[in-house]
Amino acid sequence: MIRHFARMRYVLAFLLLAACNTASPGFRGIDATRITIDGSTFDVRVRELRAEAIRINAEYAPRFGPIEGRAARAMAQVSGCRVARVSGDQALAFGALDCGGGAPPMRYKGHVEIECFPIGGLAPEARHPDVQYNCTPI
User: Fold this and answer.
1) Which pLDDT band, with edges at 50, 70 and 90, does 9 fall under?
2) Residue 75 contacts residue 83 (beta carbons within 8 Å)
3) How is residue 22 annotated by DSSP?
4) Alpha helices of the chain — where are they, by DSSP H?
5) Residue 122, strand partner residues
6) Closest CA to 51 of 67, 36, 73, 66
7) How many CB atoms lie within 10 A of CB 120?
8) 83, containing H or E segment
9) Cα separation of the two ends of the chain
10) Which of 119, 117, 128, 109 is CA-nearest to residue 46?
11) Whole-number Å distance between alpha carbons of 134 and 130
């Protein structure tokens, strides 16, 4: 009986970890694009004028504030649209996209990994709207 319980504990732990980057119901069936912004790694999915960013790396994030801007930049990079509004928490963020009246152009599709670094001398922590990023597939 004890061995059975020990095995079940490992199966349960595996299932919980496997669900960490599972798409929410509105984004199921859409391939994720993996993108890293300022040390935060997200799986981003886009459907019509909405985006979802799931943070998949382990990092200390006591509040949504520092993660919100990174998630917005990740959604903008993947969709090619401006992110008008972001909601969510440290692990899962949703974005409303402003694509100028049409569907997103989708810069990256499918299983692409992208890494972005700030350029222009401004620190990303400054939360300055003019911080620009150089993003490249890896």
Assistant:
1) low
2) yes
3) P
4) 2-18, 64-79
5) none
6) 73
7) 10
8) strand 82-88
9) 48
10) 109
11) 13
- Name which of 73, 78, 72, 33 is nearest 56 in CA terms: 33
pTM of the prediction? Answer: 0.71
Token pair belonging to 46: 């886009």
- Extract long-range pairs of 122-131: CB within 8 Å, 24+ residues apart: 124/37, 124/38, 124/69, 124/70, 125/66, 127/69
Tokens of 123: 């620190």
The reported pLDDT for the residue numbered 2 is: 61
What pLDDT is recorded for position 16? 42
- Tell me what pLDDT residue 41 has: 95
Name the DSSP class of 104.
-
Nearest CA to 135 out of 34, 23, 31, 30 is that of 34
Q: What's residue 47's pLDDT?
A: 92
Q: Are 74 and 35 in contact (CB under 8 A)?
A: yes
Q: Which two tokens stand for residue 59?
A: 């990092």
Question: Residue 99 pLDDT more than 70?
Answer: yes
**Residues 35-72: pLDDT tens digits?**
999 889 999 999 999 999 999 999 887 789 889 999 99
Token pair, residue 133, equals: 């990023």
The one-letter amino acid code at 70 reads R
